[in-house]
């Protein structure tokens, strides 16, 4: 079974959704098929650049004030921690472009362990408050995924992979993907949002039976923010 995942490394529900997908697969037990996962880029904030802006400030402008943002982040953090994820929105997260991170993940998909690179980037942003557009943060993530340090530095210093990422982002838009995480199972079933593990397991079972399940709505992130 192939699962294509559209995601962004600064989307909290994408990390939560990744954990729930793993839990959903585990619920299948011995019935779980061999699964091949492919990661695809989604730019939640395509207008962001490499200049770091305090995340809380950026969100306050978008959502109407610091109090509202504090409530949103607290709720998301509580949900993530219930899944065993070390979210800490008091670590000074920043708003930056994630284009270099997606370029690195595309490189890792070809030459290393893309899952480990993605996990390292999620952890850097949500648990440590590090700048995921910073070269050193990206290099560390690449090395964690088995990439050669000099290879990563040369790659990031060029514009290699940028057109590929932009093409894949455009492909997602053409497919009607407007929020992440979006999981596409065997190219025929789209499941959007951080579904509970039980719902994911049910979708996988139905996909194995060649049915067309309809998954319930679940929290996701889009250009206008996260549910």
UniProtKB/TrEMBL annotation:
Instruction: Give the matching Pfam families.
Output: DSBA (PF01323)
Please list the residue ranges annotated as the DSBA-like thioredoxin domain: 3-204
Q: Name one GO molecular function term.
A: oxidoreductase activity
CDD domains recorded: DsbA_FrnE
The UniProt entry's coiled-coil ranges are none
What InterPro entries does this protein map onto?
DSBA-like_thioredoxin_dom, Thioredoxin-like_sf
Could you tell me what this protein is called?
A: DsbA family oxidoreductase
Species for this entry: Luteimonas terrae
Top-down, what is the taxonomic lineage of the species of origin?
Answer: Bacteria, Pseudomonadati, Pseudomonadota, Gammaproteobacteria, Lysobacterales
């Amino acid at each position: 079974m192939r699962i294509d995942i559209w995601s962004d490394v600064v989307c909290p529900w994408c990390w939560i959704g990744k954990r729930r997908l793993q839990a959903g697969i585990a619920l299948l037990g011995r019935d779980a098929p061999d699964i091949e996962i492919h990661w695809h880029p989604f730019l939640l904030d395509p207008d962001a650049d490499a200049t770091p802006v305090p995340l809380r400030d950026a969100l306050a402008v978008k959502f109407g004030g610091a109090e509202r943002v504090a409530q949103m982040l607290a709720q998301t953090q509580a949900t993530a921690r219930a899944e065993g994820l070390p979210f800490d929105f008091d670590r000074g997260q920043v708003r930056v472009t994630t284009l270099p991170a997606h370029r690195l993940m595309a490189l890792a998909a070809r030459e290393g362990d893309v899952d480990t690179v993605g996990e390292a980037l999620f952890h850097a942003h949500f648990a440590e408050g590090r700048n995921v557009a910073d070269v050193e943060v990206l290099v560390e993530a690449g090395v964690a995924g088995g990439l050669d340090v000099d290879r990563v530095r040369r790659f990031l210093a060029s514009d290699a992979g940028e057109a590929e990422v932009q093409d894949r982002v455009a492909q997602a838009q053409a497919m009607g993907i407007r929020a992440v995480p979006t999981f596409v199972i065997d190219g025929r079933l789209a499941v959007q949002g951080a579904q509970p593990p039980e719902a994911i397991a049910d979708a996988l079972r139905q996909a194995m039976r060649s049915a067309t399940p309809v998954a319930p709505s679940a929290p996701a992130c889009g250009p206008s923010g996260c549910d």
